[in-house]
Specification:
Number of helices: 10
Distance between the termini: 9 Å
CATH class: Alpha Beta
Helix content: 25-40%
CATH superfamily: Flavodoxin domain
Radius of gyration: 17 Å
CATH topology: Rossmann fold
Shape: globular
Number of domains: 1
Low-confidence stretches: 1-5, 7-20
Order of helices and strands: HEEHEHHHEHHEHEEHH
CATH architecture: 3-Layer(aba) Sandwich
Length: 245
């Protein structure tokens, strides 16, 4: 393994307030940090992010942070798109920093689809992670993705799969939504989600908010990742060091 992956990950300074859910670990349990990073224009991904965080914080020792990537749209564009009130509703969630990525044991990303790919705001945020890549700061950490689309076949799977490429370049361990979540096999309703990650269908005008089945999938995904991270976090450093010998 190369020098990049063998370096100790540097945690960047970060002194801003975080939107945190904590479950206090019992004696002997090791705390680990789950970071939910997302972009939401009309609130659909925000609601899914809340469900992901709800699932993750059910795991003992989990410290779950929610944060948004920076907006790139001008205010007048947001007004033209009718998203002002939705943006006000999520304004309390802080903007993510690169230091938060570096300090997390698992990162769960949420993005709406844009023609079968992640949104531009998320792409721009990830394009700024070159320093973390150079330091190997995310190597051996869990990465996962959830999404939304306007229609049932609006690019949910391709958005998540194409997102995975960036995570693999960072050396992350990709986790999706296994079929042990039984709601994934429902055929009595139109629902988002796939083995690649949870998802919601927003409707052509954003009129549809996540269904209970979609929220259950997001909670399952969050809890599943937190459970895996709780085991991996204890040994990640020693695995990387052993591979560098």
């Amino acid at each position: 393994m190369g020098q990049r992956e063998c370096r100790k990950s540097k945690v960047l300074n970060n002194d801003k307030e975080i939107y945190i859910h904590k479950r206090k670990p019992e004696d002997g349990a090791q705390a680990m940090k789950i970071l939910v990073v997302y972009y939401s224009l009309y609130g659909h991904i925000h609601r899914m992010a809340e469900a992901v965080a709800e699932g993750a914080k059910d795991v003992e020792g989990a410290e779950v942070d929610m944060c948004r990537v920076p907006e790139t749209l001008a205010q007048e564009v947001i007004e033209m798109m009718g998203a002002v009130e939705a943006q006000k509703a999520i304004a309390h969630v802080p903007i993510c920093t690169l230091g938060e990525l570096a300090s997390a044991d698992a990162v769960i990303f949420g993005t709406p689809t844009r023609f079968g790919n992640m949104c531009g705001q998320m792409r721009q945020f990830l394009d700024a992670t070159g320093r973390l890549w150079k330091e190997g700061a995310l190597v051996g950490k869990i990465g996962s993705v959830f999404t939304s689309s306007a229609t049932q076949h609006g690019g949910q799977e391709s958005t998540i799969l194409s997102f995975h490429t960036t995570l693999l370049h960072h050396g992350m361990i990709i986790v999706g939504l296994p079929y042990t979540f039984e709601g994934q096999e429902r055929n009595d309703e139109i629902t988002g989600g796939s083995p690649y990650g949870s998802a919601t269908i927003a409707g052509n005008t954003g009129e549809r908010m996540p269904s209970e089945n979609e929220l259950a999938a997001a909670r399952f995904q969050g809890k599943y990742i937190a459970m895996l991270a709780s085991k991996l976090a204890k040994h990640r450093r020693e695995i990387i060091d052993a591979m560098c010998e």
